[in-house]
Amino acid sequence: MGRKTWEGLKNPPLPRRRNIVLSRTLADVPGGEILRSPEGLDRLTGIDRAYVIGGEQIYRLLLPHTSEILLTVLDEEAEGDAVFPEFEAEFGEPEVLDRLEGVCEWRRYVRITPTDLNP
Fold it and tell me: Residue 69's beta-bridge partner residues?
């Protein structure tokens, strides 16, 4: 996650998860780790699967390296000033994982074009 997402957490980070914050300015992230650049992600060990939880700049930065997207789509418009980048042309049709009628739908997209990691 990015600095703004970290600072926007209303609760402590979830336990038993490795919380990695990509930030050039934060000095400390209690319960997490700081990386100063995305290149540092390649040097992390012990991670089989990573989840990118925002914000907008981090999504844009890491989308080219992403092979799968797990996306929650709200049934109603939500207020906000950040948006998820366009990705549909690089990913197949979504698999609907679940739906909560009147609230949201959970979708899974799988990349159909090569990633920067797997050309």
Answer: 109
Together in a domain, 50 and 76: no
Q: Using CA atoms, how far apart are residues 117 and 71, in angstroms rounded to an integer?
A: 21
d(Cα 49, Cα 51) in Å, to the nearest integer?
7
Domain extent at residue 27: 1-58
b/e burial code for range 22-57 (CB count within 10 A of at least 16 → b):
bbeeeeebeebebeeeeeeeeeeeeeeeeebeebbe
7-55 per-position pLDDT tens digit: 998 888 888 889 999 999 999 999 889 999 888 888 888 888 889 998 9
Claim to verify: residue 48 and residue 73 sit in the same structural domain: no
- How many Cβ atoms from other residues are within 10 Å of residue 9's Cβ? 15
This prediction has a pTM of: 0.83
What is the DSSP-derived secondary structure letter of residue 116? S
